[in-house]
């Protein structure tokens, strides 16, 4: 019996490892290198937070689509600012930065907020000061590419832009803008009434394929530790100070190791109003499949914003992945797991609304 004991213990350990979960990495878009790097990191150390940090860092350094990391999506002053989030599905703790200036490693700073503070979210120049204290170098996020983007935009009379109901006409000029009315209590619309009808006066979105993206990443290790996170430089030509959905918990990303996780990408100004990642996780908690959960989160948005542009990736704790989207034909997302042999890009067909 004494001789059998170690083998029995080994067998028990092996069984619990096998059934704890099937590790995976899933990301928005066809960000294959980021997915591969996260997967390799996960295989080496089996630490979900490290894998997610490595994966998002890869995209930041590669300037994926020029919409992650430095040197992309300049704001109306030509400055790139960064948003990032890490959400830990074991502890339900998080770290996020919004409108981060002059620091390239936004996901690294979000990780420091998670691990070295009792706060959840730091923003703007004061997030930069925090990052510097944590040892991150301050450097310009402007590159030739982002300066060209900015100059071209200015030459096109600052079109498109995100202003509305201001003077001079934002569809024809560069500002500076002032509100049309001087009376701050002026009502633009009648009081909203509860209705299923789609509002008629929703301005056309500035978002389309090619002027924004986010790496949203979900990682689960072999012990079922689920984490989700995002990194982005937000929306091209945003009004300075704008923070998108990506660093907001439940909007850009959400995870609960008991259930699953979800991440989002797209028109963050709209998406943040619906907390689609949170909704997708809650749908999975109620028994929905990841695809159904992602579709419900998208449907909730399109009910009010039928032409909204965006996608959601949802994964349950068993590693089943699903996605849903709107405003494009199909939405690519990338998965690495024990059966994928590298990173595989899948496509969700968007429901036509
Ligand atoms: N959601 C991001 C933002 O609005 C952009 C994107 O993912 O496409 O900042």
Q: CATH top level of the largest domain? A: Alpha Beta
CATH topology of the largest domain: Glutamine Phosphoribosylpyrophosphate, subunit 1, domain 1
Q: Please state the average pLDDT score.
A: 90
At the fourth CATH level, what is the homologous superfamily of the largest domain? (Glycosyl)asparaginase
Structural class: alpha+beta
Total helical segments: 9
Major sheet summary line = 8 strands, mixed
Strand percent estimate: 15-25%
- Ligand catalogue: aspartic acid
CATH architecture of the largest domain: 4-Layer Sandwich
Strand neighbour order, sheet with most strands: 4-3-2-8-7-1-13-14
* Shape estimate: globular
Query: Which consecutive residue ranges, at least 5 long each, have pLDDT under 50?
Result: 8-20
Q: Output the radius of gyration.
A: 21 Å
Domains, number: 2
- SSE order in H/E notation? HEHHEEHEHHEEEEEEHHHEEEE
